[in-house]
Structure prediction request, 266 residues.
Amino acid sequence: MTTLKTTTHDGENDDGDDLDVAADIDDDLDDDPEGSGCGGSNGIGDSLTLFFSFSIFCRSLMPRSEEGQLTIEKTPSYFITKDVPRRVYQFSKHLKLIVVVRDPVTRAISDYTQVASKKMDSRSFEEMVFVDNTTRIVDTQWSPVRIGVYAKHLKHWLQYFPLEQMHFVSGERLIENPADEMLKVQQFLGLRPVINHKHFYLKSRKGFPCILKPNRQKGSHPHCLGETKGRIHPMIDPSVIRRLRDFYKPFNIKFYRMVNQDFGWV
Prediction:
């Protein structure tokens, strides 16, 4: 059995959009006869204490894989948690890693939207993103900002896994053209290209693609994101957006060079 861990740049304050596009990959691969989902995010890599039983616990949660079948396990915070690469490597150095990334400015606003929707903090985005709104120094300790510095997180993973074992998916392109992105994922995993354009259609008023999941008894049935997904983002001062883009620009360029891919954020 080959165990595949699917990871994203999703954080604890995310509004679910990033996780949803990652979940699309997991759902889509569930439709592939050679792919088998683990049934959700287990958070195994988040706890040092829990990690000591990582191997036994993780394997017990995974479905039995037939010969030639891949099993997927995903936990959003894996990619951004510093010590997880070492622990994952100790579990298996042969894993293939899938990372879904999106424009860090957009994802920071998404994280804030989640916080605001739960009334966890009454401060504005502008108040939270800067250490001081007068000097406009970006608060790099604020989680929604820190998560988007992908080059820093990737550096920890490259200490243990070669780039050849990693595949980076554009969250924007996954929403705009899911079939093409899924073709790349299937090729990376060495799967037959079963999932294609006929598995996707746009029905959601929020602009997210729906997935046609085959059912042996009932035929294909649609799977769309829940109504709570894709919350409307607040209006942010354009000068704040420009300041954030300037802040992320060198990190984005470095990330592009590290993965040999341009995501169009600069």
The two ends are 40 Å apart (CA to CA). The domain at 69-258 is CATH 3.40.50.300 (Rossmann fold). The chain has a mean pLDDT of 76. The chain is about 40% helix and 15% strand.
